[in-house]
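Recall the central idea of this unit: under ordinary conditions, the amino acid sequence of a chain determines the structure it adopts. In this exercise we apply that idea directly, starting from the sequence alone.
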Amino acid sequence: MKIQESRLVESTGRIVAHFRDRYVVRTPAGDRDARLAGKLRHAAAQSEDLPAVGDFVILHESTDAGGAVRIESVLPRRSAIVRRLPGDETRGQVLASNVDVAVIVVALSHRLSVRRIERYLVLAWESGATPLIALSKADLAVDVDAAIAEVRGVAPGVDILALSVVRGDGLAALADRIAPGVTAVLLGSSGVGKSTLVNALLGEEHQRIGATRADGAGRHTTTHRELLELPNGGCIIDTPGLRELELREGDDGVTRSFSDVEAIATRCRFADCAHETEPECAVVAAVAEGQLARDRLESWRALRRELAFLARKENVIAADAAKRHAKSLDRLGRARLREKYD
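Accordingly, the structure predicted from this sequence is:
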């Protein structure tokens, strides 16, 4: 009896779900369970180098019966939503990749936090995706128009939709933004209604929904990231709620999120104006004249300081790593010289 030799078959696919050390990859032949190849796991120096939902990947599959499927490499990303891991000043975590639209979901059932919205906008703009703000649970809002006006004040150039799954408000407009071939990701805190929106867009109860609390907030239910295909051919990635939103980087994101402040700053007398005590500072003058909210300026300053601190920290860590590497090479070189001449 001739024994058939096992061989590896290479294919491509897209990661549609991630469960700890297991991935689900969508391929032309169907969805496959896959794990990381050892060399990919060891080669990933940072968490953001590991595969994420939305990534296109190269797979190797053994032709043996029940052969394992391994993710060998990740294809280049056109965009990536990356946050800094809580408690870590250098490492990042990819929440979703190859995203076209980043939908920032904010519930109108409780007090708005425009400062948090600003951070989400920095994250979205920095990723390469286009942000969209979805004000969910509009049926529970006291004044929807006032809420939209408040959010518009910190989101120049960003589209804002007021949504109500109960009444169906805004759902068609949101679905239109996730057209065939478009991938969107839902970002927001726990309980803002992300999974409810996903179910409404899908037209079925796919995501588990927790009971609503007395204050109108939902309960945390999503435990993993998952990419789902909508009936119109678009794709949407649901994500667990973020308790902390730590920025990994964001110079471009801050520039775009605070385009109103940046535009005023171009009128300052000095190009390197710090917008504090310098003469003829257009930004300080705009605050004094009521053209720019002081809270908005303080938020811009705080984010700039935060990102500058992270950049300095990374430079120090990189310099220390380079120094250790140089010392290691020096020790190796001296050891080889001793071997040669002893």
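Residues 213-218 have pLDDT under 50 and may be disordered.
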